Amino acid sequence: xxxxxxxxxxxxxxxxxxxxxxxxxxxxxxxxxxxxxxxxxxxxxxxxxxxxxxxxxxxxxxxxxxxxxxxxxxxxxxxxxxxxxxxxxxxxxxxxxxxxxxxxxxxxxxxxxxxxxxxxxxxxxxxxxxxxxxxxxxxxxxxxxxxxxxxxxxxxxxxxxxxxxxxxxxxxxxxxxxxxxxxxxxxxxxxxxxxxxxxxxxxxxxxxxxxxxxxxxxxxxxxxxxxxxxxxxxxxxxxxxxxxxxxxxxxxxxxxxxxxxxxxxxxxxxxxxxxxxxxxxxxxxxxxxxxxxxxxxxxxxxxxxxxxxxxxxxxxxxxxxxxxxxxxxxxxxxxxxxxxxxxxxxxxxxxxxxxxxxxxxxxxxxxxxxxxxxxxxxxxxxxxxxxxxxxxxxxxxxxxxxxxxxxxxxxxxxxxxxxxxxxxxxxxxxxxxxxx
Length: 436
What we know:
Layout: E1 10-13, H1 22-33, E2 38-41, E3 57-59, H2 68-82, E4 86-90, H3 93-101, H4 103-106, E5 110-111, H5 119-124, H6 126-136, E6 143-144, H7 149-159, E7 163-167, E8 182-185, H8 188-195, H9 198-201, E9 205-209, E10 218-225, E11 231-243, E12 249-255, H10 259-272, E13 276-284, E14 291-297, H11 315-323, E15 338-340, H12 346-350, E16 357-359, H13 368-391
Parallel strand pairs: 1-2, 1-4, 2-3, 4-5, 15-16
Antiparallel strand pairs: 6-9, 7-8, 7-9, 10-11, 10-13, 11-12, 12-15, 13-14
Helix pairs in contact: 2-3, 7-8
C-alpha cells in the first residue's frame, strides 16, 4: 500500500528546453511508481521523458523566458483540465521563482509550501546569496560586485587570478548571446569586457574568489524542509565525476554522510525560514577544510534520486507526503549508494556497485526513456560534431608554420562551482542545472 495520498495528482513544471534533463524523469518515476497521477508541463519537443510509462498526461509548457504571469496562466489551464488540487513541483530555477511569485494566485488549484514568495528568488540570486551567507555565518567565497569596468579590474587585482565571474540572475541570460552563467577569467581585461555586457545579461556581474577543484572537494546536499522547518529526506553527497570535468553537473555522485555539510544546510533553513525542496552545492577549501556554499537551488537537483532511502523516500515524495498531511517515514539512509548519468559516464554505469546504484535514464520497469535517450543522444552529438567541423578554422597553407602560445597556468575548469546553471545547454545542465 502506498504511503502517498493517491487522490492527489502531481504536476511537474519545467520551462527550460533542455531535452536531456534527467531530473524530470527522476521525478516522474518517483511519483509514478508510488501510484500518483503525474502530469508533465515541459518538453514541447519529443524527449526521452515523454516515453516514460509513468507519465499520465503531457501539457504544453510556457515558452523559455516566460513571465511569472504567463507561467501562472499555463498552470491555470492545466488545473482546469485536472479539476482537483495537485502538488506542484517546479524543476528549474525559472519555474521555482515564477511559482514563488505567483503563489497566492495558484493556491486555489495547487498545493505549495508556505513561505515568502520572494525567498526562492533571494537564494537563487547569486549576489543576494553572498549577502545572506555573510549575515547567517555560512562560509562563502569572497565575492565583489563592481559598479564599473574600472571596479571590475580592481576586483580582479584584489581577488587574485584566476577569478570566477558569475551573473547574479543567470535565468535572465538571453539565449544565443554566448554569455555563460559562470566562467573562470584570467585577466582584468576579461573582467572589463564582461562588465560591459551587464545590460545585455539582465543582471549584475559578480566576481568571486576561485576555490580550486580537486578530489573530494565538491559536495552537495539535498533535502526537504517540512511545514515545521525540519530538514527531512535527502542527504549529503560527494561528486565523483562531473561533466565537464572539474566542474559542471554531477555525472557520478555518491551518498556520503557529512555532518558539517548537513549542519550548514540546517542553519540556512532555520535562519531563512525556508520551506520546500532545496539543492545546495558546496566546495571544500583545500587549505582550511571549510565547506563554502556556492549555490542554493530552490528546487530538486537533477540527481535527487541518489538520496532514495530504504523506504523509497526521496525529496519529491517527501514534498507530496507533507503537503497532503501524510506522515513521513523514519529515515533509512543508504550511504555508499551511487547515481550515474550514463550518457556522461558510460563506463561508470558498467562498473560494480556493491552498495546500490541508480541510473539516470535506464530502469528495468521503465525501459523506453533509456532506449530513446541513446538514439537522441547520438543525433545530438553528431549535430554538434558537424557544427564544429563547419566552424573549424581553415588550416594554413603548406609551409606556413604558425606557433600559438598556450596560456600559462592550469587548464581552465569550466566553473569554480559544482554546477554551471546553464540550463539551455544539455551538455552542461544543473543541476542548475548544476550540479547538484
